[in-house]
Specification:
Order of helices and strands: HEEHHEEEEEHE
Structural class: alpha+beta
CATH class: Alpha Beta
Strand content: 25-35%
Number of helices: 4
CATH topology: endopeptidase fold (from Nostoc punctiforme)
Largest sheet: 6 strands, antiparallel
Helix content: 10-25%
Length: about 150
């Protein structure tokens, strides 16, 4: 049975409150922004566009202060890019911090509006909140997990 975007967002919510730690990959213990979509993909048994399973242990070779577009490039390589206007629950959103596309979040619906779930050092943990204009202006790309359906 196919996984839906709502199921992806619900799985991401299970990580809310997990303390932020660079390259953390354990629900409730330690998580970073790249770890969230990888761990969610693994827990749901999702495959990337090359039919490779997502694993929380993937991509543990980047700096805590990214200087390039590694996160954005990996999203392009493994996920299906789509227009920002078509963003739906469960999509992976790559954001600029402050100008480098190095931060990952999962889109959701929060209080009836577009929200995001992400592990963010600024908050010290994985959080869910409304995607306000400050965050929307930082969007570098929107991607869906291959095979995930709307809903």
């Amino acid at each position: 049975m196919p996984v839906t975007g709502s199921q992806v967002a619900a799985k991401a919510r299970e990580f809310v409150g997990t303390p932020f730690q660079h390259q953390g990959r354990r629900k409730g213990r330690a998580l970073d922004c790249v770890g969230l979509p990888l761990c969610v993909g693994e827990e749901l048994g999702l495959l990337d566009r090359n039919k490779v399973p997502f694993k929380g242990s993937d991509n543990q070779n980047y700096s805590s202060q990214p200087l390039d577009a590694f996160v954005h490039d990996e999203a392009k390589r493994r996920l299906a890019e789509k227009p920002v206007e078509q963003m739906q629950d469960g999509d992976v959103v790559i954001l600029r911090i402050p100008t480098v596309p190095c931060h990952a979040a999962i889109a959701c619906t929060t209080n009836g509006v577009r929200g995001m779930i992400h592990a963010y050092s600024g908050n010290g943990k994985c959080v869910e909140h409304v995607m306000d204009d400050k965050w929307r202006k930082r969007i570098a790309g929107v991607f869906s997990y291959p095979g995930v359906t709307n809903g």
